[in-house]
Amino acid sequence: MYYQDILHSQREFFKTQKTKNVKFRKIYLEKLRDLITQNEDVLYEAINQDFGKSQFETYATEISFILKDIDYYLKNLNSLSKPKKVTTNLSNQIATSKIHSEPLGCTLVIGAWNYPYQLTLSPLIASIAAGNCCILKPSEMAENTTKAMAKIINENFPSDYVYAFEGGIDETTEILKLKFDKIFFTGSTKVGKIVYKAAAEHLTPVTLELGGKSPVIVTKDANMEVAAKRIVWGKFLNAGQTCVAPDYILVEESVKEQFLELLRKQITEFEYKPDSEQYTRIINQKNFQRLIQLIDPKKIYFGGNYNESNLYIEPTVLNNVTWEDNVMQEEIFGPILPVLSYTNFHNALNSVLESEKPLSAYIFTNNDEEKDLFIQKLSFGGGCINDVVMHLGNDNLPFGGVGNSGMGSYHGKFGFETFSHQKAILDRATWGEPDLKYPPYSENKIKWIKKLL
Ligand code: NAD
């Protein structure tokens, strides 16, 4: 079906006001939950075909997130969608003031391939919860998962309410010519700019969930074993193809050797084998070729092996890396972990500040002053102290970037707000009003208005 036909039908459907009914939204959230659970095996199979992701990781990092999101909104939708009473200032008395969350209308969600279910369906869930219609455009790079999602959505949702289009750059370019009321994009900073420009044509608000080089600082006051275990897990999860994965490590020089040894031990213990259930493949040849170019053989501390036939790259740690190395010039988005060292904590923070604002940043330390400086000095989307990646699992925290890593946020109530307009209503009594603001003005009125305002 043509994109504009679907959008037109969604616009007509939105006008019926049906999506504004909270019960209606809940019915479709429940329906989506049932569809996900009924089709769990189909979803596992599709993602396994796309990049060999295991059932365990798919459940832990995708399906469980989606089900949790649905449950969150089913539980909280009544209170989220209720008008919020706020105080009324003196000059507006006698009145009540309320903020009404209203749906934006016709929304577009463009997804990335690396967590294809979560990154497409979580924004959809927030959009439905907020009372919108929605067009989905999952990533063509995860072909089988995109097909699976499109089939599930298009066979079970009315197309004038929710519809999924398959397609790549050409199709997305066409879709982006249309006027939406909100675009929610997850992907690279480069394409984020294209989406932002297209949205500007129609003054469409956007949320851009982008990427960047997320640093991990490890100081001498860290618990080294815990740091190594958590970093290795977060880095090699999904073979490093995670937007919030640690991109590189900045470790204090005095503990570097000890820390490198712990990284080696941890990677070995986690048994990341080719074709094993523990370890995901690289999504495609193009990314595989890009990644192996980033491995400087002279700097390999651990790993460095790869196999083109099954798109396997061994977890690889690079040592003695400098800011000038190729691996430090772009977001890695793969299982290569460069380690740089520092001797002065302030200089370490300053070197992070030299780069674009990352999506995430992490610090491992038990020193409170270092924790405070890390939070105060660096600007980044979100992050953890003494952990990596896990902040995005807490729905009470907004998830999103800043600067080059994006704008806007979602998860929990933030997702609801992202897909809503906050409409301000002042409801004024028709009695009890002094004549102060009305002409004719006088010296006496100025005196009183100065006191009042
Ligand atoms: P991408 O930008 O290449 O693609 C994302 C989407 O944009 C896809 O649906 C694709 O079809 C579409 N697209 C690609 N080129 C386009 C063009 N020229 N015009 C219009 N549409 C186009 O990103 P990707 O490779 O899927 O994902 C990797 C990037 O996404 C990384 O930078 C990663 O950090 C980031 N990412 C961010 C988050 C987040 O939540 N912030 C999550 C996952 C990935």
UniProtKB/TrEMBL annotation:
GO MF assignments: aldehyde dehydrogenase (NAD+) activity
GO biological process: aldehyde metabolic process
Name of this chain's protein: Aldehyde dehydrogenase
Annotated PANTHER family: ALDEHYDE DEHYDROGENASE, ALDEHYDE DEHYDROGENASE TYPE III, ISOFORM Q
Cross-referenced Pfam families: Aldedh
Positions of the Aldehyde dehydrogenase domain: 11-425
Database matches in InterPro entries: Ald_DH/histidinol_DH, Ald_DH_C, Ald_DH_CS_CYS, Ald_DH_CS_GLU, Ald_DH_N, Aldehyde_DH_dom, Aldehyde_DH_NAD(P)
A Gene Ontology cellular-component term: cytoplasm
Catalytic residue positions: E209, C243
Transmembrane parts of this sequence: none
This protein's UniProt keywords: NAD, Oxidoreductase
Organism for this UniProt entry: Chryseobacterium aquaeductus
Family statement drawn from the similarity comment of this UniProt entry: Belongs to the aldehyde dehydrogenase family.
